[in-house]
Design goal:
By secondary structure, this protein is an alpha/beta fold. It has a single domain (about 5-380), classed as Alpha-Beta Horseshoe (pyruvate-formate lyase- activating enzyme). It is built from 13 helices and 17 strands. The chain has helices spanning about 5-10, 15-20, 25-30, 105-115, 135-150, 175-185, 195-205, 215-225, 245-255, 280-285, 290-300, 300-305, 340-345; strands at about 10-15, 35-40, 50-55, 60-70, 100, 125, 155-160, 185-190, 230-235, 260-265, 310-315, 320-325, 330-335, 350-355, 360, 370-375, 380. α4 runs parallel beside α5, α5 packs parallel to α6 and α9 (about 245-255) crosses α11. It starts with a helix and ends with a strand. Residues about 375-383 have low confidence and may be disordered. InterPro entries: Aldolase_TIM, rSAM_sf. It comes from Pseudoduganella violacea. This is Radical SAM protein.
Length: about 375
């Protein structure tokens, strides 16, 4: 019997005392109705059932359950240049961000070596980075390696985060979707940050010739994808895009017409002072729409409030989300905090596993920090 992350995460009735202890406490206090339950995705420090001792690189680590493993996709520059992209944020302590690294000739040997270090540890696959589907050959080989690992070691969930570029490609999009379906994805989180093509393009800035930019190609791909794999549409809220309750209602109406069953609205992550000032960080600061404010706006709209039913709040290790149902769709409002993420990554406990193109398996997104194991025999090529 296959386990899933949801089988590990405890769900409790949300009492007033529990609500007051959550990261989302200020938001919950302002809601007009109570949320029935809380899902504790992040394990409590003393909950031994939610931590695994596992040896990596000859050293024992305390690893959260569930934990996701990401083979960071950086085979080529991303097909989109989203104005807010977190991969364009530069940490002051990082000479080479993972987005700048390209896989060398030993990449897949190194990936397999890193996976051997994780043998026996329950993990989930979280496929992200730049854009996984931009390089089909790299993606196929990566999936093969992950599938071989899963044949002998426990893997819970398998999720792809994508802008859909490769999936909408006229020549190979259908084959990519079929390969991902055979791989056994539990769902795909598909980014579309506005329901109008021109506004979405002003945000995502797909490169010339990328077919998914066109609304027609996107919709054709979405129909094909949803016939094979569950899909959650993801919209990052921002000034100039989806920014008001009216925008949220319009987006949800569009998604419902397309037959989409799940939509996620996300706020830009809160940044700390570990990042350099650059055009991306300034864009985030200048166009941020606080999720708490947007949610309050939505709940003040009778059209939304009368049809939205609260289901659950999730407490993650650096994020919170509020989940409910609206007109037959599952709708999530989510916010995250990179300062909290960095504190957790630096705590000595392992909350995240990322394999970077330089051969380092790290407990975080920086390819030069929190290194658990280094399998590289050659320096990754710099793109």
């Amino acid at each position: 019997m296959n386990m899933h992350d949801r089988d590990i995460i405890p769900i409790q009735p949300l009492t007033g005392e529990r609500a007051a202890q959550l990261v989302a406490a200020p938001v919950l206090a302002q809601l007009p109705a109570s949320v029935p339950t809380v899902a504790y995705r992040a394990p409590a420090a003393m909950d031994d059932k939610r931590w695994r001792a596992h040896t990596i690189g000859g050293r024992s680590y305390r690893i959260a359950q569930p934990v996701t493993f990401t083979p960071y996709a950086s085979a080529k520059p991303c097909s989109a240049r989203c104005r807010f992209c977190s991969e364009s944020l530069i940490e002051k302590a990082s000479a080479k961000p993972s987005s700048s690294l390209r896989p060398g000739s030993a990449y897949f040997d190194n990936l397999r070596a890193a996976l051997r270090e994780l043998a026996g540890l329950p993990i989930s696959y979280s496929l992200s980075g730049l854009e996984t589907t931009d390089d089909p050959e790299w993606m196929y080989q990566m999936l093969d390696a992950l599938q071989r690992h899963a044949a002998s070691s426990p893997v819970n969930d398998r999720v792809l985060y994508t802008n859909g570029s490769g999936l909408a490609h006229a020549a190979h999009g259908a084959a990519l979707i079929e390969r991902l379906a055979v791989f056994g994805l539990d769902w795909v989180e598909l980014s579309r940050h506005h329901h109008h093509e021109n506004i979405n393009q002003s945000i995502m800035r797909f490169r010339p010739g990328v077919e998914v930019r066109q609304q027609g190609r996107f919709l054709t791909m979405l129909q094909r994808l949803t016939s094979r794999i569950p899909v959650k549409l993801v919209c990052i809220v921002q000034a100039g895009g989806v920014a008001t309750a009216g925008d949220v209602l319009d987006y949800l109406g569009w998604a419902r017409e397309l037959g989409v069953e799940a939509v996620v609205f996300r706020e830009f992550s809160q940044l700390d002072d570990s990042y350099k000032d650059n055009v991306t960080s300034r864009y985030i600061a200048g166009t941020r729409i606080p999720m708490a404010d947007l949610l309050e706006q939505c709940l003040n709209q009778p059209e939304f409030a009368g049809r939205f039913g609260f289901e659950q709040v999730t407490e993650g290790y650096y994020f919170w989300n509020l989940v409910g149902h609206y007109r037959g769709m599952r709708v999530t409002f989510e916010a995250s905090d990179y300062a909290l993420m960095h504190r957790q990554h630096g705590s000595g406990n392992v909350y995240k596993l990322v394999f970077h193109a330089n051969g380092n398996l790290c407990a975080g997104w920086n390819p030069e920090r929190h290194i658990l194991f280094s399998s590289a025999r050659e320096e990754a090529l710099i793109g």
